[in-house]
Amino acid sequence: METFNRKNHWENIYQTKASNETSWYQQTPQTSLDYLSACNIPTSAKIIDIGGGDSLLVDYLLDLGYKDITVLDISAKAIDRAKQRLADRADKVKWIVADIAYFMPTESYDFWHDRAAFHFLTDEDDITSYVETVKENINPDGILVIGTFSEQGPKKCSGIEIKQYSETSLVNPFNVYFDKINCQIVDHRTPSDSIQNFVFCSFQKKKS
Q1: For the residues 172-178, what does the mean pLDDT come to?
Q2: Which pLDDT score is estimated for 131?
Q3: What string of DSSP letters covers 74-117?
């Protein structure tokens, strides 16, 4: 049986689909921007967008005056797209091509954002690795925001299995190290006009 290659899968997706043909496309990443505002993240904050790919969130962060932005994605093609879109502004962003399950940061962050990357980790070891990476690489009092498919959302995305979450099951892996701030259910309308149900939660790192 052939082993599934996660990186090859995503490179193929971005090779064969335009940005606005992907189900996760958002012209305005409003929920993410709302969390940024609600958590009073200063423009000096070190921000990382996990699975950011060619998401437009980075454009909005630059427009808002954020100066220390990192975008991580498993797909080099996705990041190349974002760089081309941003043109000269791409030099203001740090770009990392990596599988989040094996990511070893070289710096710590004040705001860790993940919309629809965490739910692709279905192996318990990968989930544990992710949680440990977050714990070790978010600064004291730092903020974590994660959005995943809810239990009423899709069971697959882009042809592969995902892990659905409720508010409780999303909070559980992180609550040893983080305090929950807020969770909400959000409907995302895809470019094909279907609805995907997400659960978003924000957390603050516990004081040691």
Answers
A1: 97
A2: 97
A3: S-HHHHHHHHHHHGGGGGGEEEEE--GGG---SS-EEEEEEESS
